[in-house]
Amino acid sequence: MKLSFVCFLLLCFCSQSSPRGVDRTAKEAQDKIYGNIENMTPKQAQDREFFRYLLRVIKVLDQDKAWKDRTETLSNGEILDGKLTIGLYEELSAGTKERLDDVKKQELEFQENLIADQKTHMVEKILRNEWNPLHHEHKDSFNQKDIDLLLGRYQDLVDAKRREKFQKHEMEKELKHREELKNAKTEEERKELEEKEKEKESKHKKQQETMHEPVDDAQLKEVWEKSDGLDPDYFDLKTLFKLHDKNNDGFLDKWELETLFLNDIEKAYPEDDPDTDIMERDEEMERMREYAMNNIDKNGDGQLSLEEVVQVKASGEMDDEEEWHPLYGSREFTEDDLTAYQDEIAKEKIVEDGAPKSPVLPNSS
Ligand SMILES: [Ca+2]
Ligand SMILES: [Ca+2]
To answer: What is the CA 285 to chain-centroid distance, rounded?
Structure first.
């Protein structure tokens, strides 16, 4: 486990685009920064902002000796106990501190641009948004508090890395599709490919329309009836919780929690459908788990108690979302991310072959 965590940290890199597109129209600049968040709920968009910033910070920390020493010597248990981050700031080099200040300043500017563009999800929905420099007293310097807020949970580090891997997967799919279109020999062939893609898209949309917000009443009732085979007239949250607390310890851990999402996942991404992208299916499940944990796990122990579930439901905190926006409708990368990824592939190719090649993959425009 220790080794895999070190690998994760060493492998961490971020294809983050610069915050401003100087010579583009406002709309294009916004897309360049943002990608498409129109198909996300504010909470989903917030999560995306958090992980994007977290990856940028990790990229800086990966160059620092104190951070590397900790990741290489601490056991997984010690990391879970928070030893990775306690007192870390004092041990960082002056250069790292300076770079972290820069990253924080850029993030602040980025967030202010979002607000200027009327993308206000980061200020209106404060929940789990403490990491955002917008809310900090010391906006221009990165300190131990930033470390605690950003890197305090081991699961977040794992999730950030997983999201990054998924983004690459999505970019590969997009590049492959563009390459196929480019290689089409006739206009007819190209149109046929586009038509096929559209058909696939509308099929996926239809499948995903039936998805619920994680831990939504409608979702839980459907699980009760369809997965657990119980009478819908006798739905009872406490009984459902106990049924899915497989080891009977009084808590839903992340795997137990995910059993509540299987019904929705199977409807939206049928396992036996050859068009189902298994990595996307898995990612959707992870996003549902992240979302539920982030909103319900108030004491941050990585598990849900029945009290936490009941309290959040009673508070109505989770009732303000229209619905769950599945991954299929959201674009996980910007054109800049795609260009950076193509550059990365081209560089790897040079190292492998010892000589520059003509572009491996087509450009977007
Ligand atoms: Ca349990
Ligand atoms: Ca908890």
So the answer is: 11
R_g of the chain computed on alpha carbons: 22
pLDDT higher than 70, residue 126? no
Say how many CA atoms lie within 13 Å of 172 toward its Cβ: 10
Higher-confidence residue of 35 and 244: namely 244
Cα of 303 vs centre of ligand 1, distance in Å, is 8
In the reported structure, the alpha carbon of residue 241 is separated from the centroid of ligand 2 by a whole-number distance in angstroms of 14
Closest ligand to Cα 293: 2
CA neighbor of 258 nearest in space, from 218, 285, 219, 240: 285
Strands (DSSP E) contained in the chain are: 251-252, 304-305
Mean pLDDT of 317-341: 80
Three-state DSSP class for residue 82: coil
Q: Which ligand is nearest to the CA of 256?
A: 1
Max avg pLDDT among 6-15, 32-41, 275-284, 349-358:
275-284
Element (DSSP H or E) covering residue 113: helix 94-116
pLDDT over threshold 80, residue 39 = no
Q: How far is the CA of 185 from the centre of ligand 1 (A)?
A: 56
**Residue 328 confidence class, pLDDT cut points 50, 70, 90:** confident
CA distances from 31 to 38, 72, 246 (A): 11, 38, 44
Tokens of 44: 């989903």
Q: Identify which has the larger pLDDT, 48 or 19.
A: 48
CA of residue 220 to ligand 2 center, whole Å? 19
Distance, in Å, from the CA atom of 175 to the CA atom of 172, rounded to the nearest integer, reads: 5
pLDDT, position 80: 82
The Cα 129–Cα 342 span in angstroms is: 32
CATH 1.10.238.10 fits 209-329, yes or no: yes
Q: From the CA of 316, how far away is ligand 2's center (Å)?
A: 18
| Residue ranges of the chain assigned to CATH 1.10.238.10 | 209-329
